[in-house]
Amino acid sequence: MDGVCEGRVEEVLALYAEDAHVEHPFHPLGAPPLRSLDELRAHFGGGASPAGPSLRRRPAGITVHETADPEVIVAEFRYEGTVVETGEPFTIPGVFVMRVRDGKIVESRDYLDHLRSARARGRLGEVLDAVRDRHGD
What does pTM read for this prediction? Predict the structure, then answer.
């Protein structure tokens, strides 16, 4: 999470298996799973800054739960930060359910509040319009 917040894309990618499977089940537009390091690199922006305002964020309130399956953990957390250009604070809650095998993440289901994320990035209207277009009024 720190690496994501700090834009250390290659370090973050090193945590994943080559054929990792990452899903975002709560994505409002039903984003397809990410199934390779190349798809994850594109998802993380390959080091490029995303369009819109700059976000300064950090993970907070991290709680890791072990499960009956020794490969699986559940991590609860939130991203806390500010929009650099406006100073507006934001909080984005999340839960990751990860399977780690041989030291690499092979599966992850990332449950994030995508609407709060879109709002922080100045894209909430665009996302809501896309949801309306896809699912009707």
Answer: 0.86
